[in-house]
Amino acid sequence: MLNTATPITAPTLVRAMAANAAPVSTVDTTAHERASQHVADTLKLLSDQLALQRRVAHAGDVIYQAGERFSHLYILNAGFFKIVNLSPDGREQLVGLKFRGDWLGFDGIANGQYACDAVAMDTGEIWSVRYDALLAACAVRPQLLQVLHAAMSREIARDRDSLMSVCTLPADARVADFLRYWAESLAKRGLRADQITLRMTRAEIGNYLGMTLETVSRALSKLVREEVIVFLDKGRREVHIPDVGALSVFVQRCIAPAVTLQ
Amino acid sequence: MLNTATPITAPTLVRAMAANAAPVSTVDTTAHERASQHVADTLKLLSDQLALQRRVAHAGDVIYQAGERFSHLYILNAGFFKIVNLSPDGREQLVGLKFRGDWLGFDGIANGQYACDAVAMDTGEIWSVRYDALLAACAVRPQLLQVLHAAMSREIARDRDSLMSVCTLPADARVADFLRYWAESLAKRGLRADQITLRMTRAEIGNYLGMTLETVSRALSKLVREEVIVFLDKGRREVHIPDVGALSVFVQRCIAPAVTLQ
DNA sequence: CGCCACTTTGAATTAGCTCAAATTCCGTGG
DNA sequence: CCACGGAATTTGAGCTAATTCAAAGTGGCG
């Protein structure tokens, strides 16, 4: 624990955003198409009702920064982004990862200024909407308000799950659970969930999970050793997950009271 | 770390809710009255526009439970409540503490059912409002929507701060920061901030902060030894904080690179 | 080809955990 | 009023998971 050591601000590699946005083309298309459709519906609802501004972001681009005056909310149409919290004394903490369909900027509503940084981890497309314009549109289209609230609600629930993971799971399990959550997120968005491109360094993963980069590395090695994951590339950033269930099993084994074999 | 050991569900003592809701009567009344007024304004705005249901809750009372069908949001008028997250495998995690003016139930919006338990820690008063009625009222009174969004936004920002605290601070600093945050919360609500009644067991505090109850106890003892806090009662539940700034200094000293005295 | 950032792995250290025992507190009932 | 019992707390001692420090390996890019 104690993330103070390695800074996590360094940008990562630029990858084709197609990799993140490409829908799956496997047997079980219906489920994936449904999930993908949900995101598409939301995005359509927004663009029908509002003047959305669209822009492409590249790895390292800062969407908004802590302290900046709040005015817009952002919806991710493609790409992968991180949310970094900063403390007055200089600690930095990765508090969230965002995918297609996620909203950014809620933290700014309360105080009129954003409370953290939002940074692109690879190439992606961001739609931005003025908060006041959004509220006006919500008055006309109550369904829009539902979508907005659902997004905020999901964010709250997710943040709590993160806290629970950090507080109740040992390091190895936390890494496994992180991959499980990521795979699940991809599946929910209709993307292929058996393959994850870690667009973050070990230091960033460790910061997010409350452990050192060495511990992340050791945990990943252990997951490979136990054949729960497979690295597809020499760079060890392409994770293949043969069976997502195995990740859950691994987590359970970690928290199970040490088995007295015999 | 790893909270699995001691369960945190046991109810605590019933205390007069006046203790929590009583405004301060010291020199600096204006600031406190302003803070207190803000909460009062919000509550008035709500009751003017909506049919609020009010009820008194006692220590241990469950306001809502994970899995229960979502229908209402709750606003605390007095008292002190905890939010407990539950995992499918039985881990439980205290993910939030709520005071007067705070809202409960946002986690239920996204999935139509609450994602965690909300439990009273002492006697308090809760106002509940049907979510759909609230939305209808927001259409009439946009200011209400602002208040609602601000509450959700604050919750998101707070959850992130919690994660940062757990991930970046050593145990002693976490306990100090917890007290600092609590004192600050009281001050924001116009209550006296130099005195905190811990209506939680060491096990609950430890669960919330991601450490064992023994570590909490040792950290508190250290804070007493360093004269950052003083216990006012034999039960060691009434904490007096002579100077809130000293808590911040203590936190900084904990994370400062070990000073080579020489 | 060489540099630089990232990653892995090992070895030693330590913060925080587990286990254990003593103490205190508080409610209850005699 | 006091004795009793259970729950919570404190404190000590040893242990362990995860950290720190260190070194070697690897990959990508100019």
Overview in brief:
Chain A has eight helices and eleven strands. By secondary structure, the first copy, chain A, is of the alpha+beta class. In chain A, the strands form three sheets. A four-stranded antiparallel β-sheet of chain A has the order 1-8-3-6. In chain A, strands 2-7-4-5 form a four-stranded antiparallel β-sheet.
Mind explaining what this structure looks like?
2 copies of one chain form a homodimer. Chain A is α+β, with helices and mostly antiparallel strands and 262 residues long. Chain A folds into 2 domains: 144 residues, Jelly Rolls; 86 residues, Orthogonal Bundle (Arc Repressor Mutant, subunit A). Chain A is 43% helix and 19% strand. The first copy, chain A, is built from 8 helices and 11 strands. Chain A has a 4-stranded antiparallel sheet. Chain A has a 4-stranded antiparallel sheet with strand order 2-7-4-5. A 3-stranded antiparallel sheet of chain A has the order 9-11-10, covered by helices on one side. The two termini of chain A are 35 Å apart. At the A-B interface, β5, α3, α4 and α6 of A face β5, α3 and α4 of B. Chain A binds a DNA duplex (30 and 30 nucleotides) through α7.
CATH class of the largest domain in chain A: Mainly Beta
- Determine the number of helices of chain A (DSSP H or I, runs of at least 4 residues): 8
Alpha-carbon distance between the termini of chain A?
35 Å
CATH superfamily of the largest domain in chain A: Jelly Rolls
CATH architecture of the largest domain in chain A: Sandwich
What average pLDDT do the residues of chain A reach? 88
**What is the helix/strand order of chain A?**
HHEEEEEEEEHHHEHHEEH
Q: Residue share in helices of chain A? A: 40-55%
Number of domains of chain A: 2
**Quaternary class:** homodimer
**SS content category of chain A:** alpha+beta
**Which two chains share the most extensive interface?**
A-B, 51 and 50 residues
Largest sheet of chain A: 4 strands, antiparallel
What is the fold-level CATH name, i.e. the topology of the largest domain in chain A? Jelly Rolls
Strand proportion of chain A: 15-25%
* Strand order in the largest sheet of chain A: 1-8-3-6
Structural shape of chain A:
globular
**Unreliable spans of chain A:** 9-28
Radius of gyration of chain A: 19 Å
* Count of DSSP strands of chain A: 11
